[in-house]
Amino acid sequence: GAGVSQSPSNKVTEKGKDVELRCDPISGHTALYWYRQSLGQGLEFLIYFQGNSAPDKSGLPSDRFSAERTGGSVSTLTIQRTQQEDSAVYLCASYSGRGDNYGYTFGSGTRLTVV
Amino acid sequence: AQSVTQLDSQVPVFEEAPVELRCNYSSSVSVYLFWYVQYPNQGLQLLLKYLSGSTLVKGINGFEAEFNKSQTSFHLRKPSVHISDTAEYFCAVKQMRGGSEKLVFGKGTKLTVNP
User: Fold this and answer.
1) Measuring CA to CA, which residue among A103, A91, A109 is closest to residue B102?
2) pLDDT per residue over B71-106, tens digit each?
3) Which domains does chain A have, with CATH numbers?
4) Scanning every residue of chain B, which has its alpha carbon at the shortest distance from the alpha carbon of A48?
5) CATH assignment of B4-114?
């Protein structure tokens, strides 16, 4: 596609429920990143994928958070037993290392609200 | 690890005035620098990037930035702002460390353009 697509755009969930956030990157981009943006915390790195493997998961806040990527394309970020502090905007970015397109393209994000 | 400091959390200016948003990064052998803009309820949009070459980088919407290695700075400038430039601006550096590559962001600067 032309850009990075994230779904859903908004998600309201009850505390304790599991949620899945989806990211569909730009075709041909080699790497995919997840960031979290919350008030007062700025943009926090969560995890990134090179192909289907995750060389760096250091930003995942707890073992309730996990992510996978299949076929070198779509990625899902799963949060189990959601807590109110998980409320944030989750941003996905895909990366190209080639020429004029070098850099990171972000999606519009998923706004997660845990009530 | 690389870090980014955005010296001003908020910058108010009047329409048609010049503006400079300041960004300093921690020193490294090679530096890839980025400025992103985020409009309300949207994702991050790339304004410009410095990879190598000319230290003056021109981006979209009339913005430019100057890479200054001796001062480890990458300040963003616009000679005359519009109301529509009201947004949050993020400076970021690419960190390459221990087999991991990721963007490290500053905490952002909220630019408010007043009539």
Assistant:
1) A103
2) 999 999 999 999 999 999 999 999 888 778 899 999
3) 5-108 (2.60.40.10)
4) B102
5) 2.60.40.10
